[in-house]
Amino acid sequence: xxxxxxxxxxxxxxxxxxxxxxxxxxxxxxxxxxxxxxxxxxxxxxxxxxxxxxxxxxxxxxxxxxxxxxxxxxxxxxxxxxxxxxxxxxxxxxxxxxxxxxxxxxxxxxxxxxxxxxxxxxxxxxxxxxxxxxxxxxxxxxxxxxxxxxxxxxxxxxxxxxxxxxxxxxxxxxxxxxxxxxxxxxxxxxxxxxxxxxxxxxxxxxxxxxxxxxxxxxxxxxxxxxxxx
Length: 229
Prior knowledge:
Elements: H1 2-24, E1 45-48, H2 58-61, E2 75-77, E3 81-84, E4 90-103, E5 116-119, E6 121-122, E7 129-139, E8 142-154, E9 157-158, E10 173-176, E11 194-200, H3 211-222
């Protein structure tokens, strides 16, 4: 009996020691924090024409502007170029609006063509630009211009324009139509407006890269209703 009582006493003493030690210890604790900084990117573009801008200013220099009083088949430099002035890569598009008239034109050998709706200026696009379609600009008298849509793209894939980089010109020169005189063109002034559009390349509606798909995203967001066919 005495022997069993001693064993019980030892067990009780051991539990008491454990409880006492635990009561003297503090909880292990720690803390940490992390703040992630986010910035908003920027999509901006600059349209410039390096060769065109070299021409003298008639008003300032008194030198005839080469775009004034153009003769049939005359070619002048005009080179719309797009520069990515933002911080993100971008896909870019351009529209070129060319005035047109129902006129009689002349073949290189001097023979006349039948009257028809004809662009007053022509150009050849440079490599890296893909024509997507044409839109007819109208007023009360009918079609007054053709607006052409181009994508900076190759192999049905838009080309990413990196920040600080420039495209090659959409075209490098324009040529006046070889029109028969006396059709009223001599008394009118014509313009060739060029507009550019840019949109981010990443996270674009599931990774769209085809020009038609990317342009659709852009027009949906910016409420552009012109249909290029």
